[in-house]
Amino acid sequence: DKGLEKSNENLFSKLGKAMVGKSKVDEEILDELEEILITSDVGVDTTIKVIRRIEERVARDKYVSTAELDQILREEIMGLLEENNTEDLTDFDLPKDKKPYVIMVVGVNGVGKTTTIGKLAHQFKQAGKSVVLGAADTFRAAAVDQLILWGERVGVPVISHGMNTDPASVAFDAVKKAVDMQADVVIIDTAGRLHTKVNLMNELGKIKRVMQKFIETAPHEILLVLDGSTGQNAFIQAKEFTRVTEITSLAITKLDGTAKGGVVIGISDQFKIPVKYIGVGEKMSDLQVFNRKEFVDSLFK
Ligand code: GDP
User: Fold this and answer.
1) CA angle 98–101–107, rounded 5-degree value
2) What is the mean pLDDT of each run of 10 residues along the chain (301 residues)?
3) Is 111 flagged in the annotation as binding?
4) Ligand 1 pocket member 125 (CB < 6 A)
5) Which GO terms describe its molecular function (predicted)?
6) Distances (CA, A) of 228 to 135, 266, 301
7) From the CB of 280, is ligand 1 less than 6 Å away?
8) CA-closest residue to ligand 1 atom 16
């Protein structure tokens, strides 16, 4: 778990410094905590919520020891993280009653969408699943090419009609292929052009409708990819995308080499959408199924 640990390195170590020589949680410690949460991109609203709850506890119990603060914080953060309803499906397992399982992936350019799809394909394949990819981000030639490259690298079929073709037609063929070959999972890349919101909404709507010709319940998951190192931008994108379509899960990338793991806490709390995957590097294996407990533990290492 190197990536994750690195991501949260020192998140609460400053708090430890503020507590040196103290046995009781006081205002100074809470101020320090507030600053830590803000600077690690937890977001203002969530930070205020956490601080307020701890203040209430201090007021109620009169005395909260600094030793207790760790435990209280762990509980608070755990409570802020949306439960991932597939947490029991460890190691890239898939629900057995949904085959093929259809994942539609959304996100703006540069957040690591293509890489995340490639990593997912790899991890599912490693877990013994058959995978089909659909290159429905037809707006960018690079996106199509990159997905094809990932398909070759991982060894899974990629359905592509090239650039500027109809995304819904690509999605249709990808799902059809998955049904025909009885694949376990089909992952559809889509364009993330947020500046043309109505177009994007229509495009995603159409993609969904054509999938439903094969599988009424598809897509089973609409995964929004966010770059965890971009702080407030990730919040803005989450807000915009939740307006455009119904996001069911999040993948937060680039959590390696940043002490900004707080985005995970804030986004999950603000949007009530579970974080399902985290990206912790550029390699194929650098994608983890998000585990709340492991994540919270990593904040305190
Ligand atoms: P897209 O435009 O959203 O499809 O973005 P790409 O998948 O092309 O990724 C953009 C850049 O981010 C590439 O250089 C990736 O290697 C890099 N990247 C993606 N995910 C991660 C991650 O979890 N950690 C790091 N360090 N880099 C990542």
Assistant:
1) 145
2) 54 77 90 92 94 92 88 92 66 84 96 97 95 94 93 98 93 97 97 85 94 94 95 94 95 82 92 94 93 86 72
3) yes
4) no
5) GTP binding; GTPase activity; signal recognition particle binding
6) 24, 11, 20
7) yes
8) 282
